[in-house]
Amino acid sequence: MYPDLDELSDDARLLKEEVHRFAAEVIRPASIELDRMKPEERIKRNSPYFKVMKAMKRLSYHKIHIPAEEGGLDLSPLERYIIMEELGWGSLGLATAIGVDQIPFVNALLFGPPELRDLVNQWLNDKECKYHGCWGVTEPEHGSDYLLCFRDEEAGKFGKGNVVAWKEGDEWVLKGQKAAWISSAPTATHCGLHAQVREGKAIYDGIFCIVPLDADGVRKGKVADMMGMRDGPQGELFFDNVRIPDHYVIVAPTQFYGIFFDQLLCLTSCGIAAFAVGLARAAFEEALAYARQREQGGMPLVKHKNIKLKLYGMFEKIETARYFVRKAMEHVHRKILEEKTFDAFPRHSRAAQIYAKRIAFEVANDALQIFGAYGLSSEFIIEKLFRDARALLIEDGTIEVLSFDAADDVISSYEKDYYDVESIIRRYEY
Ligand SMILES: Cc1cc2nc3c(=O)[nH]c(=O)nc-3n(C[C@H](O)[C@H](O)[C@H](O)COP(=O)(O)OP(=O)(O)OC[C@H]3O[C@@H](n4cnc5c(N)ncnc54)[C@H](O)[C@@H]3O)c2cc1C
Hints:
Elements: H1 10-35, H2 39-42, H3 48-58, H4 77-90, H5 92-111, H6 117-125, E1 133-136, H7 145-148, E2 163-168, E3 171-183, E4 190-197, E5 206-212, E6 218-223, E7 234-245, E8 249-251, H8 256-293, E9 295-296, E10 299-300, H9 305-338, H10 346-371, H11 382-392, H12 399-413, H13 422-425
Parallel strand pairs: 1-4, 2-4
Antiparallel strand pairs: 2-3, 3-7, 4-5, 5-8, 6-7, 9-10
């Protein structure tokens, strides 16, 4: 499927083979098993979830965004893309879990004080999944609000955050509740948490901190029982006057908080987009294999013109998405991970995420149609891929709300052709 496969370096080609093997032999079977398990069973230490996470840590895929000199892997944006597409091919739910695992620790390394370095090292060197991250953004009353609050003109009206933070001496206190959909909350040991400062005007006056989930006052709610992405568990987090030391606050309440959040969304948007391309490719491959062997009207399905055209349309969508996502990722990784200027264009990464999510759903839908009634039965994985692709239209921001945010960025700064930081910092009112 890669027309430029022969242009990849030997290292990148080997990497692709290695990650694909991991996705096919470890992730995919575990994801099918997890999908059929009860929510509470999925999160036990002996469940297939932890088998995948331990294997992933042993292969060091949690270090893909970290440079070699910091103890990570020396990867190019293209190599990171290759890994993420393959992980998404294996399972969207488990790929998401591998993605959010990095949020507290990679940000602690990039933006946190030196006192957090020991904790980051423990996570980096962990092979048993003793350190496992999640990302606490959305709240019962603020789902989409969190994605819009830095550019939307009306953001001041969004209301107070459900998790608030205030400083007492050299500690911060956290109180409130995150939404029921925090990926890996039930399995994580640490959360990269967004909280509004108590005296702030709205959720954009916030901090980003790392919270050990065994701290006094933290409580995990029940594991969500969702239609899709059942293999990566989601759940609630409650904070009842939880105290963390000052140096656990990675991004303090300053004007940088909005830029940090916006740029972090650029990074995660590209990751989700690569997972989406992987999921679309998985659905396409299932449909192609099925259409080759299933006979109707005296011939294999692939000989019927409508099926041929469907398969071509799916191929076209996946290929166009892949190259757009790759380019967006190259831009974002250069600005954030290499040059560290934190001025990646949000419009491109949001568009990559929106486009890849949309085509993943369309491709999964067409793939299921090619299977006919078999597509609806749990006998074939296509039914799971379709459910996952549906969840993708909501996970990490609905495509509608992401489009609003991208539109605001396009309108405010398209002609200027630079990152419109002014549209972010005027939100900061604390
Ligand atoms: C599988 C999965 C995993 C997730 N993992 C995480 C995670 O790891 N961490 C985390 O913090 N969150 C996570 N989420 C939450 C996710 O980010 C939110 O579900 C998403 O942002 C949408 O928020 P909401 O569900 O509250 O919907 P709402 O914000 O209530 O939106 C409901 C509907 O209204 C529309 N809408 C909302 N606001 C506006 C507006 N201003 N203008 C016009 N239309 C609007 C939306 O498009 C949507 O159709 C996850 C969700 C899922 C499904």
